[in-house]
Amino acid sequence: MNFIEEMKNKARQNMKRIVLPEASDLRTIKAAATALNEGYANIVLLGDENKINEMARENGLDISKATIINPLSSDRAKAYAERLYELRKEKGMTEEQAEELVKDEVYFGMMMVKMEEADGLISGAIHSTSDTLRPALQILKTAPGTKLVSAFFIMVVPNSEYGEDGVFVFGDCGLNQNPTAEELAEIAHSSSKSFESLVGKQSKVAMLSYSTKGSAHSELVDKVVEATNIVKEKYPEMHVDGELQLDAAIVPSVGNSKAPGSEIAGNANTLIFPDLNAGNIGYKLVQRLAKAEAYGPMCQGIARPVNDLSRGCSAEDIAGVIAITAVQAQMQ
């Protein structure tokens, strides 16, 4: 059984209610139909009910089990606006601004999650990352003990002997542009926990660079070395090593050659990229050239499950993220 089927099976064990605020997009409706028909999540679609149902009918999609809510006419809008105002009035928000914001599907959906009327939210197929995460951080806040919200992808590489039978976590590929060494260490810690909670196996974290164990010297390498040292000092329970080149991190023969004695080299399943350039390019190369499944960017560090999507995602990608989000909600 592949990774995403395992997620779907876990999701079925304790069904969660997932909000999809982008129901004007056909990919979202297709993903909702998949989740409902395969029975691994209860789905809330936000938008105009007539238009959503018409789009479903035109494409032969059964979404009869979905709950469809129009924020513009919902009887919950007033309560959501009042709560949003209470949450944000110290930041200068007025009651009128709160009333206007909850007309937006993403804000409305976040308030559903905040009021515990839904268990998680997925957006990003047609919204930017900032338009998804801004309301999440304003309304849901960060999880207790979290110093940095970051993003990761779950990469499932077909017919691969690397990683955990081809499964990897890549972080941060979606949010933090140029993290400091301290921030890189926090990304590594969060990504390690995400791998273990979702995959159910021990994470083996590689701090990636263009250098392996001092083979090159520059400020770019120094940052990764410092981040590795911070992780080892703050989180001694983690299995982590760096700095490692990608081949040294995942190919056993190269790892043995370039970093002899390292328990991570050649065995890594959690890859931490030094900046967003490297992470974003890296995941897209693996997705397109290795034909890997890429689920994300998943968010880590928010108080409730909220996940972003790549605007180039497919309906199948969204359906997979629904399952993962449901499992994250179970864990809370």
Task: Explain how this protein is built.
- The strands form 2 sheets. A 6-stranded mixed beta sheet has the order 8-7-9-6-5-10, with helices on both faces. It has a 5-stranded parallel beta sheet with strand order 3-2-1-4-11, sandwiched between helices.
- 46% of the residues lie in helices and 15% in strands.
- The model has no long low-confidence stretch (mean pLDDT 92).
- The protein has 13 helices and 11 strands.
- It has 2 domains: 3-141 and 302-331, Rossmann fold (3-Layer(aba) Sandwich), CATH 3.40.50.10950; 150-289, Isocitrate/Isopropylmalate dehydrogenase-like (Rossmann fold, 3-Layer(aba) Sandwich).
- It is an alpha/beta fold and 332 residues long.
- The chain has helices at residues 3-13, 26-38, 49-58, 77-88, 95-101, 105-114, 129-139, 181-199, 219-234, 246-250, 252-258, 276-289, 315-331; strands spanning 17-20, 42-46, 67-69, 120-122, 150-156, 167-171, 205-208, 240-244, 270-272, 293-300, 306-307.
- The chain is globular.
- Helix 3 links the parallel strand 2 (42-46) and strand 3 (67-69).
Helix/strand class: alpha/beta
Biggest sheet layout:
6 strands, mixed
Task: Return the string of H and E elements.
Answer: HEHEHEHHHEHEEHEHEHHEHEEH
* Helical stretch tally: 13
In percent, how helical is the residue content? Answer: 40-55%
* Percentage of residues in DSSP E strands: 5-15%
What is the total tally of β strands? 11
* Count of separate structural domains: 2
